[in-house]
Design goal:
73% of the residues lie in helices and 3% in strands. It is mainly alpha-helical. The protein folds into two domains: 14-86, Winged helix-like DNA-binding domain superfamily/Winged helix DNA-binding domain (Arc Repressor Mutant, subunit A, Orthogonal Bundle), CATH 1.10.10; 92-231, Four Helix Bundle (Hemerythrin (Met), subunit A) (Up-down Bundle). The protein has a three-stranded antiparallel beta sheet. Strand 2 and strand 3 (84-86) form a beta hairpin.
Length: 232
């Protein structure tokens, strides 16, 4: 029988179980660190160490390190060996450039999801539409629905290459929005309605309506970005 590095006997299937647990912890670390970044609990432009992130997430070095590698691929952090992890600053110019690309890719994603979403995908979308119709979201609760909606659209498209391309665009635009929102109740209500319209069109299997709804969301995000300039 094979043994692990500590000399314990491994039962059949335990290697895959251990790998699944490691992956789950890395996913948890990703979510926790992304939340810290999105809500500005680690400031844009700051340099932070792995040790601090381990303390803040309550997770070990391996899952935190794996999460940071994913976050770096999605441009939410920059890893500088022997110095730490840099949280890149945000800017309106960067947000507008990524929204140009997101507009095209998200339109493709919703069209694909309209055709390819399975019944399991569609059930999850119906649940999300119902959730988005709820009143009284906190900002943190709304953040979960935004990320969840993004994940449902990409999952429903059933194209892993599109998923890889969309992840940084959606993550960075979420970060900008949550970092600059002022009138929370109004903006949450607007955003929830726009996301719900996209999902409803996908559920109707209407790719033209889904694309139009995705463009409406993009137009809103562009106007939101310009509004931050006017406030400044």
């Amino acid at each position: 029988m094979p043994t692990n590095p500590r000399g314990r006997t491994l039962l059949p299937g335990s290697l895959s179980t251990e790998a699944a647990m490691t992956e789950a912890k890395a996913d948890q670390a990703y979510r926790e660190i992304e939340r810290l970044i999105v809500f500005g609990e680690v400031k844009p432009g700051s340099l932070i160490s792995e040790a601090v992130l381990m303390e803040q997430t309550g997770l070990g070095r391996t899952p935190v390190r794996e999460a940071l590698q994913r976050l770096a691929r999605n441009r939410l952090v920059e890893i500088h060996p022997n110095r730490g992890v840099l949280i890149p600053p945000t800017s309106v110019e960067t947000q507008l450039r990524l929204l140009e690309l997101r507009r095209v890719l998200e339109a493709l994603a919703v069209r694909l999801a309209s055709h390819c979403a399975t019944e399991a995908d569609r059930t999850a979308m119906r649940d999300m539409v119902e959730l988005l119709g709820r009143d009284g979201f906190t900002l943190a609760e709304y953040a979960e629905t935004v990320k969840g909606t993004h994940d449902l659209i990409v999952s429903g498209a059933h194209n892993e290459y599109l998923a890889d391309a969309m992840a940084p665009l959606q993550g960075l635009s979420r970060r900008f929005w949550f970092g600059h929102v002022v009138n929370e109740a109004t903006e949450i209500k607007t955003g929830a309605a726009l996301h719900s319209a996209i999902l409803r069109s996908i559920l109707d299997r209407d790719p033209d309506a889904a694309e139009a709804a995705s463009h409406e969301l993009n137009d809103y995000l562009v106007e939101f970005a310009y509004a931050t300039l006017r406030r400044e």
